[in-house]
Amino acid sequence: MNELPFTGERFVPGTRGEIWIEHWHRYHFARRWVAGREVLDVACGEGYGTALLARDAASVVGVDVSAKAIAHAQSVYANVSNARFECASCTKLPLADASVDVAVTFETIEHIEGQEAFLAELARVLRPSGLLVLSCPNRLEYRDKRGFDNPFHVKELYREELAKLVGARFPHSAWYGQRPSFFSLIAPESKAAAGEVVEVEESNPADASSQLANPLYFLLTASREAAVVASAPPVVSVLADRGDWVHRDYEKVMRDLQVTVERGEALERQVSDRERSISTLQEEVRSLQHAHEELRDALAQREQALAKSESESAMRADAIAVREREILRRRGWRWWLRLPFVRLGILDE
């Protein structure tokens, strides 16, 4: 498979954290408008969203400025017959005028300088009755309140700035808000009259269910008369944590956990370094012991050689002493008087 790494900004399926919920939710949300239509997915990245929209659309064109991302998408989603992928800039789309019914572009506009040109290009390729589905960060919440500077973003927008940009080309709009957080969700077992449920698993987020598979609690309404129950049609109810208390607590726990993990990894590295140091020291000790043994053997051999040399020297000294005594003896007149008798064999030497 043509692998595409996670850069920290472009989402890749399998990336952990809340980012996968954000990205998959947007594409599932957009599916309601694409059935049987010609669709454009701008800044398609890895291609997972284009492939998801292709399940309902007549055809989908995924466009991205990254040649590597497009090559990956063409390889991984080659079996999606009604989807194709093109490498191009979002301000120069490789499509004819008025050629698509729906243009989807998520988290794109904040990455470019030419934001007006981008909206103009979207207006060009959309048919007069076409629909734009767009998302971008809310600068007030994303950057200002969190003090977060995303190095991949060129220009984030406040609501009024985005409304002005979009309104110049598309005068009619309906606004939605998205915030990944902790929510309490109450959903009917029957089809909802209002709202929708999109339940997926991280391991297979393309396959969605419109019902909660495993509710933690049951809630019900009951009456002796059917009309009483029917008076309030089934709807999806979401209670959101406006202050994000649970989410902030979760983030704190995750930060603390990350610190703990980093400390644990640092300790493991220290233990590993010390074990390597101990191993090195042990090897040095073994080398020193071996050298000591070699030195001891050499000293023993030298002592033996020295003892032998001393013994030989002592023997030579004794021999020299005997000869010196003999020389002294032969220098005396007695030796010379005895010499004739010794030679005649009369006396012993």
- What distance lies between the first and last C-alpha atoms, to the nearest angstrom? 112 Å
Task: Give me the number of helical elements.
Answer: 9
Runs in which pLDDT lies below 50 for 5 or more consecutive residues are: none
> Averaging pLDDT over every residue, what do you get?
86
CATH architecture of the domain at 1-180: 3-Layer(aba) Sandwich
Radius of gyration: 47 Å
CATH superfamily of the domain at 1-180: Vaccinia Virus protein VP39
- Major β-sheet profile: 5 strands, parallel
CATH topology of the domain at 1-180: Rossmann fold
Give the C-level CATH assignment of the domain at 1-180.
Alpha Beta
Shape: rod-shaped
Helix content: 40-55%
Approximate strand percentage: 5-15%
Derived structural class: alpha/beta
Q: How are the SSEs placed, and which strands pair?
A:
Elements: H1 19-30, E1 38-42, H2 48-53, E2 59-64, H3 67-76, E3 83-87, E4 100-106, H4 115-125, E5 126-135, H5 139-144, H6 159-167, E6 183-186, E7 199-201, E8 204-209, H7 226-230, E9 237-240, H8 245-331, H9 333-343
Parallel strand pairs: 1-2, 1-4, 2-3, 4-5
Antiparallel strand pairs: 6-9, 7-8
